[in-house]
């Protein structure tokens, strides 16, 4: 059995609650000229409490941060009231605040954490270097603060911060993506739109959270019990994947087009442990429009499942590609659209052939690799016949409301290519297809411009 070579560089994560009695803003102070970090300076940390009347707490407060977490000060508890995180991809800006760089999610739409049944909305994340908190006196190279706010007037604590510490080692995937947006605002008090950013991309846990083992306690049958925010995996009535049997399918002659407008765009290949994902950067790989609606679903990433998750008349195929698109408009209810392509063993898939040499360096580790410009148009869709139904993500949190489009044309992939994908992911996901889910009362439509040609 291969050992996973996961390098753990996230040391620990901590939470703190801050008490604010008056009106609260999510930000730490904005103006760089108002304070600094020099120990001897008149505006340094030792003087912050004297600089402004409303900064008195810096000096006279008795619950100040940061602190050292020394073993002898720490009380170990079995369960420290669970943190329920449910984040959503949402539009964000990156902001140079002079004293730090901050990623700020807009309109309170990036999701929440729940602590002791109070919801705290994610506002922004920013970095301190070196770390502010220390563990047993040890300081780390970087500290991320994820700032959350409660709008509940009855909540005792208004602000909740999740802090994560980093030491020098392999690159942090989230920062890698961000860094090219930071360069243009270097040394300027400016901000920059960076499109949709998924806070889930900030990895907080290194251990695998779920797997595909049939009887295992982290297997598909238990996904819905593993976390509160994964309950859709168990309770949802519109789960994916499903079987597309002829007797369930309604044939629709007129195909409302999927308009695809893709562009070549810089991408990374990422080993997420449970799959290999090709992620286009900066929301610039283009979009699709569905059913003639004006909403733009922006291409985020593609990833592979093997064997296939969806089946046609009970037949499972060897590989399934999911092209994931997200609509950034907060008013759109069904904001995720996935196009699925099915493959059976045969001649190699030309698109995968190009990627495969980048797979080995990230095999078996949670790593990623810049692979330069990748043109999503190179993924040949072929065929204008496809299935459409409403379903869910096929991995936790199994979010529902996903618009599924499954291309009916079966493409080919070589056995070597399937093997390469399987070896690259972690052992627990060599087979990474979720079992079929009940159809319930859903409709499956088969859009076929020439229905008489389709025996299905
Ligand atoms: Zn901070
Ligand atoms: Zn998928």
TrEMBL record:
It is found in: Plastid, Chloroplast stroma. Gene3D superfamilies: Alpha carbonic anhydrase. Keywords: Lyase, Metal-binding, Signal, Zinc. Reversible hydration of carbon dioxide. It comes from the Eukaryota. SMART domains: Carb_anhydrase. GO terms for cellular component: chloroplast stroma. Belongs to the alpha-class carbonic anhydrase family. Residues 1-26 form the signal peptide. Its cofactor is Zn(2+). One of its GO terms (molecular function) is zinc ion binding. Residues 33-169, 208-448 form the Alpha-carbonic anhydrase domain. Pfam families: Carb_anhydrase. Its EC number is 4.2.1.1. It is an enzyme of class 4 (lyase). GO terms for biological process: one-carbon metabolic process. It comes from Acer saccharum (Sugar maple). This is Carbonic anhydrase. It catalyses: hydrogencarbonate + H(+) = CO2 + H2O.
């Amino acid at each position: 059995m291969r050992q996973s070579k996961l390098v753990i560089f996230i040391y620990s994560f901590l939470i703190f609650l801050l008490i604010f009695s008056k009106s609260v803003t999510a930000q730490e102070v904005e103006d760089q000229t108002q304070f600094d970090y020099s120990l001897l300076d008149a505006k340094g940390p030792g003087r912050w409490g004297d600089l402004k009347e409303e900064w008195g707490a810096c000096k006279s407060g008795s619950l100040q941060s940061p602190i050292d977490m020394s073993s002898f000060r720490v009380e170990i508890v079995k369960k420290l009231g669970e943190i329920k995180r449910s984040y959503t991809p949402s539009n964000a800006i990156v902001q140079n605040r002079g004293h730090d760089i901050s990623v700020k999610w807009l309109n309170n739409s990036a999701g929440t954490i729940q602590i002791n049944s109070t919801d705290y909305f994610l506002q922004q994340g920013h970095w301190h270097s070196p770390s502010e908190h220390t563990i047993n006196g040890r300081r780390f190279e970087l500290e991320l603060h994820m700032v959350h706010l409660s709008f509940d007037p009855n909540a005792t604590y208004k602000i909740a911060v999740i802090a994560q510490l980093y030491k020098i080692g392999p690159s942090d995937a989230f920062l890698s993506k961000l860094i090219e947006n930071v360069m243009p605002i270097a040394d300027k008090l400016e901000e920059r739109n960076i499109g949709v950013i998924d806070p889930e991309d900030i990895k907080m846990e290194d251990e695998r959270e779920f797997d595909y083992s049939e009887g295992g306690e982290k297997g598909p049958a238990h996904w819905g019990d593993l976390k509160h925010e994964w309950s859709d995996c168990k309770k949802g009535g519109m789960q994916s994947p499903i079987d597309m049997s002829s007797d369930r399918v309604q044939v629709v002659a007129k195909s409302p087009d999927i308009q695809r407008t893709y562009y070549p765009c810089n991408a990374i290949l990422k080993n997420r442990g449970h799959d290999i994902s090709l992620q286009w950067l900066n929301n610039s790989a283009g979009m699709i429009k569905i059913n003639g609606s004006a909403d733009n679903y922006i291409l985020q990433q593609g990833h592979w499942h093997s064997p296939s998750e969806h089946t046609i008349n009970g037949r499972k195929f060897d590989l399934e590609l999911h092209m994931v698109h997200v609509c950034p408009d907060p008013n759109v209810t069904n904001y995720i659209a996935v196009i699925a392509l099915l493959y059976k063993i045969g001649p190699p898939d030309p698109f995968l052939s190009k990627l495969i040499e980048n797979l080995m360096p990230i095999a078996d580790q949670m790593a990623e690799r810049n692979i330069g410009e990748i043109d999503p148009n190179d993924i040949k869709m072929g065929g204008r016949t496809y299935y459409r139904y409403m379903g869910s993500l096929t991995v936790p949190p199994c979010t529902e409301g996903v618009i599924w489009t499954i291309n009916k044309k079966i493409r080919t992939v070589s056995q070597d290519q399937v093997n390469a994908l399987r070896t690259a992911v972690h052992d627990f996901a060599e087979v990474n297809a979720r079992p079929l889910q009940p159809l319930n009362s859903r409709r499956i439509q088969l859009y076929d411009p020439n229905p008489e040609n389709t025996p299905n």
